[in-house]
Amino acid sequence: MTTLLHISSSPRGEVSESLNLARVFLDEYRGTHPEAVVDTLDLWQEPLPVFDGSKAGAKMTVIGGGTPTGAQRTAWDAITKVFDRFNAADRYLFSVPMWNGGIPYVLKHYIDVISQPGLVFAFDPTSGYRGLIEGRRATAIYTSGVYARGVAPAFGSDFHSTYFEDWLPFAGIFDIVSVRFQPTLLTADAATARRTAEARARRLAATF
Predict the structure, then answer these.
(1) How far is C-alpha 15 from the chain's CA centre?
(2) In whole angstroms, what separates CA 155 from the centre of its chain?
(3) Fewer Cβ atoms within 10 A, N terminus or C terminus of the chain?
(4) DSSP readout, 127-174?
(5) Closest-CA residue to 21 (of 203, 194, 206)
(6) If pLDDT is split at 50, 70 and 90, which confidence band does 115 have?
(7) CB-count exposure of residue 125 (10 Å: 0-12, 13-18, 19+)
(8) Which domain holds residue 199?
(9) Cβ 45 vs Cβ 8: under 8 Å
């Protein structure tokens, strides 16, 4: 049975453009994949562990080939609990609004928690990093109020999809497709642009 994990990083609920596109995607996905399980992770509702000194210490212990003990062991257990839910999925849907040119801080927090040695990546001093989340597929929904590809720098820069689509291959996920609704504000015909994005979301979901 296939499991799709929808990771939402928008706090705006019903008025969120990224979440509305995610709903369109998921409606089509459920209709065309009735056997699949859909798990939704709202990063604004899910309590994530603070990545403090114990967790950073546990990471360095593991990457150095050791085994965390004491406070580091407790910290590592909290990390692996979050990671296990991520790792249980076969497919990922990320709804990612642009915040100040980048991704929302709750998504960066989530990435920092799960991106650990032996979980998301392996490291070799000679060959470097290798992603461990293999054989998965990801769809990313990107929205932004002002930025759009090809605009002048005065209208923003994309450290949004560029960061995110660097992290996914780092984790071992190379099968990536995206839906963009950009911009959502500085456009003469937002309704048409929204419908175009919704149509793409449906097409991708049908074969995801």
Answers:
(1) 20
(2) 24
(3) N
(4) TEEEE---S-EEEEEEE-SS--TT--GGG----SHHHHHHHHHHHT--
(5) 194
(6) very high
(7) exposed
(8) 3-206
(9) no
Q: Please give the Cα distance from 179 to 196 (Å, whole number).
A: 10
The CATH number assigned to the domain holding 68 equals: 3.40.50.360
28, 202 in Cβ contact below 8 A?
yes
Bridge partners, residue 175, by sequence? 137
Q: Which amino acid is at 111?
A: I
Please give the Cα distance from 146 to 98 (Å, whole number).
9
Q: Which residues of 67-104 are buried (b: 16+ CB within 10 A; e: fewer)?
A: ebeeebeebbebbeebbeebeebebbbbbbbbbeebbb
pLDDT per residue as tens digits for the range 37-90: 999 999 999 999 999 989 899 899 998 889 999 999 999 999 999 999 999 999
What is the reported pTM? Answer: 0.95
Q: Dihedrals φ, ψ of 87, to 5°?
A: -70, -20
> Which is it for the CA torsion 179, 161, 103, 55, positive or negative?
positive
Q: How many distinct structural domains can be found in the chain?
A: 1
What is the token pair recorded at 167? 């992290």
